[in-house]
Structures are given as structure tokens and as C-alpha cells.
UniProtKB/TrEMBL annotation:
It comes from the Bacteria. This is tRNA(Arg) A34 adenosine deaminase TadA. InterPro entries: APOBEC/CMP_deaminase_Zn-bd, CMP_dCMP_dom, Cytidine_deaminase-like. PANTHER family: CMP_DCMP-TYPE DEAMINASE DOMAIN-CONTAINING PROTEIN, CYTOSINE DEAMINASE FAMILY MEMBER. It comes from Pseudaminobacter salicylatoxidans. Pfam families: dCMP_cyt_deam_1. CDD domains: nucleoside_deaminase.
Amino acid sequence: MENEKRFLCEAIELAHANVEKGGRPFGAVVVKDGEVIATGVNEILSTNDPTAHAELTAIRAASQKLGSPDLQGCAVYASGHPCPMCMAAMRLAGVGEVAYAYSNDDGTPFGLSTAAIYADLAKPFAEQSMKIRYVPVRLETGLDLYADWKRRQQA
Ligand SMILES: [Zn+2]
């Protein structure tokens, strides 16, 4: 698809520009109704924000532009294979389509693959490298967090 190639090239060009500024080689664009509505690059080094991946900076900008956290009808074109954090964030935001130009295999020789994190996250919690525990603590006030929220939603 010609548009798809154009949007992916734009993401790669953004990534190149980010590299020239000392950043990591990742760029992304958000497209709605055939138009680029937002762009992003990896800003983790310049902002000391470990979540400032290109896809996340792009969907944050798209949500600000649309005035909504709901990105249904949007597609994201990323220079590289999105990491699990970005993939989940795009899913949660309602993004319906994702395309990327450089695969994890393309990134492996450069230390730019997140395949190992995908593999770790696919395991049961108890087998993952990060300790994850369910500790069902509740406040002594008896006020249930979720029930309180639901009640306020209905009010
Ligand atoms: Zn990411």
C-alpha cells in the first residue's frame, strides 16, 4: 500500500532526525482518516522518562490534538517493532492498526530488540524475571476502591 509506505518512511525520517540530535533511532506517526495527526520520537534520553518511547510520545500528542484519550480509528506507523509497553498502550487507547518497518530481528544485532521482554511477559507471573505479587490489602475504613468509583460513576 502506497500510503503505508509513505507513513513508515516518515517514521524512519523522524527516527533519523532524532539520532542526529543524539536520541535513539525510533520515530512514529499517528494517522487518522488518511492524515498524519501527530508524530513522536524516542525522548527517553533527553527527558529521563523511561516511558518516552516514540509510539507513546506520538499517541500522547494525538490524544492532546483530538482532546480525547480514545484513539479509535487511528493507525500507528512506527520505525521499529513496538515494545510490549507501547503495544499495550496503543491497544488500551483503541488504536486499531499498527505497522512497523524494522523488526525485532532487524534490531537484534544492535541491541534494539524487545523480543526477550515479549517472551518473559508471556510466562506466568511466578516465572517472570520481575517479582510480581498479588497482595489483596483493603483499607480498614471499609470503603472499597472500585465500588466507590462505580457508585460515583452512576451518581
Ligand atoms: Zn515502546
